[in-house]
Every structure is written in C-alpha cells, then in structure tokens.
C-alpha cells in the first residue's frame, strides 16, 4: 500500500486517474473483509451520491484490532499521556485494547444498544474515549463524538438531531490547571433531549456528580459484569460508521456521515502514505478525538495500520510551553502531527522551552487544520525537525474523511506553505466564480474535486438534500470544498482559506451564522455581523459588529455578557475576540450585509474598501471605520 519513491507516486497517480476502480480495489484488498464487494464504485455527483465497495462486508475493529493480535498483540496500540505530568502514563497493548473494547461493546449491548443506533460520546482525551468509539464500531452502533469544548446546548442539538439513545461521558475533565465539569454539562443538555435512555459515566476527576437511578451508570461497575468476548458485527461497506458535526456557512451544524468500508480504506491508506509510517513508530497527533483529525489519525488510521498512537489529555502550555517536547522525549515519538496555531503559540514562548529536550526520535512532522504561514513552517522544520525531518502540510476536511492534498513525507519535494500535490486517487480542479474550469498552472480559484475517493462524505445525517445542495450544487458535477486555492507554476497547491462564511479559529471551524445567532440571543442586541480577521496565533480571530437597542452604559460589561451568551449557546471556542458596537451595518439596498467591507475594516485596510456606492447608507461605513478596534 505504501508508495516509496516519487516515480512510484507519479505512476500511482496516473493509474488512479486512468483506472480508479482498479486502483482502489487493489488497496482495499489489503484489508480483512468478511465478504468481498460486488461493485467498487457507484456514483452520481449530480445527486450527491457515492457508494464504495457495495455488497462488501467487514467490521473496522477487526482491521484495527483483531488482525494485529497474532503478530503484534503485545505491542502498544495506545500510549496515554495524562494532563498532569506527575500522573503515570499508560500503555495499552493491542491485546488489552481488544479486550477492553469487547467488554465495553458488551456493556453497550447489555443496555440495548443495537446496530444502527446512535451513541453520543462526550469525553476528555482519555483511553476510554478510543475504547468507546471502537466499542460502538464493534457492534455497528453509529458514534457521534462531541468535542469537550461544546456547551450543553450544542450537545443537546447534536443528540436531538441524531436521536441518540445513549451518552457516554465522564464526571469531569482535567485541562491544564482546570477541572471542567462534563457530566453536569450532559445533565443540562439532557433536559432538552428525550431520546436518551442511558448515560455511562467514566470516573476521571472524582468530582461529585448527580447519578439518576435507572438512567445513569458507572463505566467501572458496568465493565466488571460482562464478558470479554464480543464477536464483531458484520457491517455492509456502506453502513454508517459515524456522524461528526461540523459548521457550515448557514444554519445549524451538519452531521457529516462516513461509512465503514470506504472510510477505513481511505483513513488507513492516507496514514501509511502521507506519514510514510514504518512499523514500530510512535505517532503523536495532537488533535482532539472530537474532531475529524482525531478520528482519522489518532484512532482509525493508526490502529488499522498497527501503529502505536499517542493520546495526550492536556494542553501544549501546561505546566509550561515545553510539554510537547517533553512528551516527544519521554515516549520517543517519531511522528508529530499538529496544528499551525499550536506551532505559532509555542514559537511565541521562545526557544528556551525547546532546547534541552531530546527530539532526536522524531522522523516526520505534519501540520493540519489551517494554512501554515512560512515563518511557522520554518520554525517547526528547523527547531523541532532539526531541519532533517520531512514536514507534511496536509489539506483536508471533515467531509473528505482523510488527507487529500499533501506531500508524501520525504518523497514529495516540499515547498513552505504549500500542501503540494494531490494524493493518488484525488482529482482537484480549480474553478472561477462562473464555474469555468481553470486549466494549466499559475491560476487561482475555488477548489473542487471532480472524482470520488473512498473517504468522501456520504450524506448529512437525515438531510440528503442539504448534502447535495451544500457540496454538489455550486459547481455542476463536482464536490465543492469551500476553500480558495492557488496552483502555482510548478502545479503545487496552496490553500488560501475559506471562500464562504466559515471561519477557522485556532484550526476550529466556526460558522458565522451560528455565532451571529448566538449573539442575537443576548438581551439588548438588535443585529450582529461576524467576520474573521488575521490573528497572529489563532490564524483567524472573531470580530463582531453589533447593533444594540440603546448605547451600552458599561461597554466592557456588555462585551463580557455577550461572550458569556456565546459560550453558553455554542461553547467557549466561539467567543468573539473583538466586539465593536455600531449604529448600523453596511447593507446593500436589498438588505444584504456586505461582509467584504467589514472584513477590510477588521483588517485595518480602510483604503481598499472597494465600491461602497451600492450601499443603502454609505455614512455607516465612516462611523464603523472611526470606531474600529
Ligand atoms: C482548513 C480539518 C490550509 C480548510 C482536517 C478546510 C487547511 C478546513 C488545511 C477543514 C491546510 C485544513 N492548509 N487550510 N493544510 N487543512 N484546512 O473540517 O479551510 O475541521 O476547508 O477538517 O480547514 O476543517 P475541518
């Protein structure tokens, strides 16, 4: 499955375009299937429908666990590094992980969870999170992991959308110096959900929590009373594996659905190739399992490849900014996969946090989630990668299931701030606003993909029409990514950022409409508009322009109140960085907010506001400029 030279890359790429079905069939054959597929690919982008390996049967946990037992049963599958460096880290072998997953799968079954049922998982970065995910997959239940930073309301919305019957959580979470309530947040969420029959609570912080008789169960108790044998449920390749909610430019978050066969093939293929994974290597992906990066490159990709995957519970700056480097040294990490926002933040603390740590185990570095600026790229490569580790800038999305455009570590010639070339099997195209395909090199446009790959989104849970409209209707016959992109003279791709109303704050996707809706719920707010502005560490910060019903008496207090409302409705990750009170917003005569102008003002580019003559009230622009923060 692994490509080893640039010539092989080119050959594989050509083969993947000439004979995509043959290309993917060859890769898929390397997995354990219960029943072979009847048809490799069935697709219709006009309808937003894609099916891979139809008729095939498998269980992803047999690929992630069982098939490794004979050869590497005693090898660590997971290394867990707790938040507090003084607490002992834990290593879990493939054999023990298999045992724990089977036990927990039996707990789920005992409480009535069946194939196709939805299970919400709201846990900190503890091994139990991976166990819970895999236990769902074992019995064919569809997991919906919700990132620990989301509010009770966000959890409730996600539980209700998917009609989850079970929630798995912990009493609390350790995050740097803080203890964060988890069960309590779930309890608040459940006041608005009636589909949930049981909550399983893992004890992490030993914080006292309310436990409702007949509904709430302790993880530790439950696993004592079940068998450690749990046969894997045979799944159709196109049965859903999980739902993961992500923000779009409009409305409520979308439940992106991935399926068992294609997702497994794609997550594993990309993991082995992009990181050039060698048996025995320790892989440390710093993302949270609550995001797609954690699903694909902490859990499924590495485990299906038989790798050792490191799960870190804490934050990069606790107890100080040397934490990642201490972890690398302590666990002899080989592959470090992180986000530009983390790199920029650690860069700011200075090199004395890096020096004195033995980073010689590192063989490969990776970056994901947002564009990486040249400075951060070089800092990472030189100071962490000793200028010898390949650095892969990987572009992809929740909807793509796995990495799409990236160098193969050590094989594809790198270019700072470029995701470089598409992986074999990925056919990117750039289109202009009118949908014309831009041929040749040295062009910029909107990034689309014209042919399916096995990891592509299958549907939005419960809303196939929205799937079709969001991704397959902007440009006919193509999947539209929402990203802008440059293809330079060498044919290298550089992702320039979202072209829709989606922000990327510290690598987290945030929809402007969602934040505006939350702000508008605050007492005294009449209307608001959100834009992203360049932020040194976060990549983008959130700038809010807000009209209030009367001039705020204590603006600072008002700002804090608005931030609290956003935290409560969405979660702390969506809090605005800057709030400017305005008396009006720049609108067209048809009432549309001209975000382009607000974006320029937030960037301080007052001279390049463009044509403002079509505005309903051009004077409002002058006022906003004067009050800009
Ligand atoms: C952005 C994260 C530039 C992009 C895996 C995309 C990137 C969105 C890169 C998806 C990269 C991700 N360079 N931009 N290497 N990787 N993005 O769904 O705008 O959380 O559309 O998936 O992040 O974010 P998501």
Automatic annotation (TrEMBL):
Molecular function, one GO term: AMP binding
Keyword presence, Transcription: no
Pfam families per UniProt: ACAS_N (PF16177), AMP-binding (PF00501), AMP-binding_C (PF13193)
UniProt entry keywords in alphabetical sequence: Acetylation, ATP-binding, Ligase, Nucleotide-binding
CDD domains membership: ACS
TM spans (from-to): none
InterPro entries in UniProt: Ac_CoA_lig (IPR011904), ACAS_N (IPR032387), AMP-bd_C (IPR025110), AMP-bd_C_sf (IPR045851), AMP-binding_CS (IPR020845), AMP-dep_synth/lig_dom (IPR000873), ANL_N_sf (IPR042099)
Residue span(s) of domain AMP-binding enzyme C-terminal: 514-592
Domain AMP-dependent synthetase/ligase, residue spans: 66-452
EC code(s) of this entry: 6.2.1.1
GO biological process: acetyl-CoA biosynthetic process from acetate
Location of the Acetyl-coenzyme A synthetase N-terminal domain: 9-64
Enzyme class per UniProt: ligase
Family under the similarity heading: Belongs to the ATP-dependent AMP-binding enzyme family.
The protein's name: Acetate--CoA ligase
Lineage, broadest ranks: Bacteria, Pseudomonadati, Bacteroidota, Cytophagia, Cytophagales
């Amino acid at each position: 499955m692994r490509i080893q030279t640039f010539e092989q890359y080119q050959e594989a790429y050509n083969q993947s375009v000439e004979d995509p079905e043959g290309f993917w069939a060859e890769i898929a054959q390397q997995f354990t299937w219960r029943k072979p597929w009847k048809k490799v690919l069935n697709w219709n982008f006009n309808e937003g429908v894609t099916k891979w390996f139809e008729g095939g049967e498998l269980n992803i946990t047999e690929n992630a666990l069982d098939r490794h037992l004979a050869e590497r049963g005693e090898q660590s599958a997971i290394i867990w590094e707790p938040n507090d460096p003084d607490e002992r880290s834990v290593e879990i072998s493939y054999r023990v992980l298999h045992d724990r997953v089977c036990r927990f799968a039996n707990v789920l079954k005992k409480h009535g969870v069946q194939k196709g049922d939805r299970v919400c998982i709201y846990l900190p970065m503890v091994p139990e999170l991976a166990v819970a995910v895999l236990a769902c997959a074992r019995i064919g239940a569809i997991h919906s992991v919700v990132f620990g930073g989301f509010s009770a309301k966000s959890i409730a919305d996600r539980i209700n959308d998917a009609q989850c019957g079970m929630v798995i959580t912990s009493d609390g979470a350790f995050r740097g110096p803080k203890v964060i309530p988890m069960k309590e947040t779930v309890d608040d969420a459940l006041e608005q959900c009636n589909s949930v029959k049981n909550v399983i609570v893992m004890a992490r912080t030993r914080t006292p929590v309310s436990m409702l008789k007949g509904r709430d169960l302790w993880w530790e108790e439950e696993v004592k009373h079940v068998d450690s044998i749990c046969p894997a449920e045979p799944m159709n390749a196109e049965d859903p594996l999980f739902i993961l909610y992500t923000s779009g430019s409009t409305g409520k978050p979308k439940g992106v659905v991935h399926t068992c066969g294609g997702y497994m093939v794609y997550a594993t293929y990309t993991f082995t190739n992009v990181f050039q994974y060698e048996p025995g290597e320790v892989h440390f992906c710093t993302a949270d399992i609550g995001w797609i990066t954690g699903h694909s490159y902490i859990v499924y990709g590495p485990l299906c490849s038989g790798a050792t995957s490191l799960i870190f519970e804490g934050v990069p700056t606790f107890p100080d900014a040397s934490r990642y480097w201490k972890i690398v040294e302590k666990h002899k990490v080989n592959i470090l996969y992180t986000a530009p926002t983390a790199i920029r933040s650690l860069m700011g603390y200075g090199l004395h946090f890096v020096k004195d740590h033995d980073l010689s185990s590192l063989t490969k570095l990776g970056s994901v989630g947002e564009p990486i600026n040249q400075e951060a790229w070089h800092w990472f490569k030189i100071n962490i990668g000793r200028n010898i580790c390949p650095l892969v800038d990987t572009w992809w999305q929740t909807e793509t299931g796995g990495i799409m455009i990236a160098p193969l570590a050590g094989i594809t010639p790198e270019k700072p701030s470029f995701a470089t070339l598409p992986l074999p099997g990925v056919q990117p195209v750039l289109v202009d606003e009118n949908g014309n395909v831009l041929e040749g090199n040295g062009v910029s446009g909107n990034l689309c993909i014209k042919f399916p790959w096995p990891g592509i989104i299958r549907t939005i849970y419960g809303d196939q029409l929205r799937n079709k409209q969001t991704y397959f209707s902007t440009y006919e016959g193509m999947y539209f990514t929402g990203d802008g992109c440059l293809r330079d003279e060498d044919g290298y791709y550089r992702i320039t950022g979202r072209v829709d109303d989606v922000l990327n704050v510290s690598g987290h996707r945030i929809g402007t409409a969602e934040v505006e809706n939350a702000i508008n719920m605050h007492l005294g707010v009449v209307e608001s508009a959100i834009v992203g502005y360049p932020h040194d560490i976060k990549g983008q910060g959130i700038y809010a322009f807000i009209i209030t019903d009367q001039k705020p008496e204590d603006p600072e207090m008002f700002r804090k109140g608005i931030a609290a409302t956003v935290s409560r409705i969405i979660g702390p990750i969506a809090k605005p960085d800057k709030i400017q009170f305005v008396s009006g917003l720049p609108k067209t005569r048809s009432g549309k907010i001209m975000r382009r102008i607000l974006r320029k003002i937030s960037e301080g580019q007052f001279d390049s506001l463009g044509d403002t003559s079509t505005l309903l009230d051009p004077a409002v622009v002058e006022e906003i400029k004067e009050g800009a923060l």
